[in-house]
Design brief:
The protein has 263 residues and is of the alpha/beta class. It is built from 10 helices and 8 strands. It has an 8-stranded mixed β-sheet with strand order 1-2-4-3-5-6-7-8, with helices on both faces. Helix 1 runs parallel beside helix 10.
């Protein structure tokens, strides 16, 4: 990791681990499930152009896991508090999967806090004609098969994990699955989010893999249609993991979106 600062910030008695790197315009990246505690080529490429803040969600990675933390509203308030602690106002949010769901919720509740919004394969919605795989019924191997168009790309993620300490990895996986279950066991989405997305006022880019077998591109269209002026970019040869399978293309889309003047 090149010049990455790793520290903890406590907000509302919740210690939050955060990695920071780069210089320039600040970006806060919110990770997806099983993606905490990583610094991927995606992160480094963004940090080559922007100041990147990459926190571990509460209940994930090296952040605290408070027992009372069990709703999407808890995540939203936590990140509003964290942005304040970092002295970041009207900041760009980039989120992937679960992290993109959190980013969309935050932007709908506190639109003035979000300068620009990038949603990469966000969860959080449910369409009657587009079922989503039940992640709680899948083994890690089955989940990986659904997430990646090219399963060999999963090694990019696996290579960053300390495979010598399997007990630690299994405990972390259990901890994170437990937090996701608190949020999504009953519904797996927020029925109030779709109508609330009209409140998002920031320029928004939605990025989706055309071959996403976990959450279909129909949800990308739903997000685009619900957020005024949102743009949707569909990536070839890509599943649910654009930040891993199409890193360069995803970073270039984000760079172009963040640096161009809005019409």
């Amino acid at each position: 990791m090149d010049n990455v600062t790793d520290k903890s910030i406590t907000v509302a008695n919740v210690k939050t681990r955060i990695k920071m790197a780069g210089r320039g315009e600040p970006i806060v990246f919110l990770h997806g499930m099983r993606m905490a505690d990583l610094w991927l080529p995606f992160h480094q490429q963004l940090a080559n152009h922007f100041t990147l803040y990459a926190p571990d969600h509460p209940g994930f990675g090296l952040s605290d896991n408070p027992e009372w933390f069990d709703t999407m509203e808890d995540f939203v308030i936590h990140y509003i508090d964290l942005l304040k602690a970092l002295d970041l106002s009207s900041v760009t949010l980039v989120g992937h999967s679960l992290g993109a769901w959190i980013a969309a919720e935050l932007a709908s509740f506190f639109p003035e806090q979000v300068k620009k919004l990038v949603l990469i394969a966000p969860s959080g919605l449910r369409l009657a004609n587009a079922p989503i795989a039940d992640i709680f019924a899948l083994s890690p191997e089955q989940l990986a098969m659904l997430c990646f168009k090219d399963i060999s790309k999963a090694m990019i993620v696996a290579s960053q994990r300390d495979m010598s300490n399997m007990k630690k990895l299994l405990l972390q996986d259990y901890r994170e699955r437990t937090m996701v279950a608190k949020l999504a066991w009953n519904l797996g989405y927020n029925p109030k989010l779709l109508p609330r997305l009209r409140r998002v006022s920031s320029p928004t880019l939605v990025i989706w893999g055309k071959d996403d077998q976990l959450i279909s591109t129909a949800y990308g269209e739903a997000y685009r249609n619900a957020i005024t002026g949102a743009k949707l970019a569909l990536l070839d040869d890509c599943g649910h993991m654009p930040i891993v399978e199409q890193t360069e293309q995803t970073v270039n889309l984000i760079k172009e979106f963040l640096t161009k003047e809005q019409d």
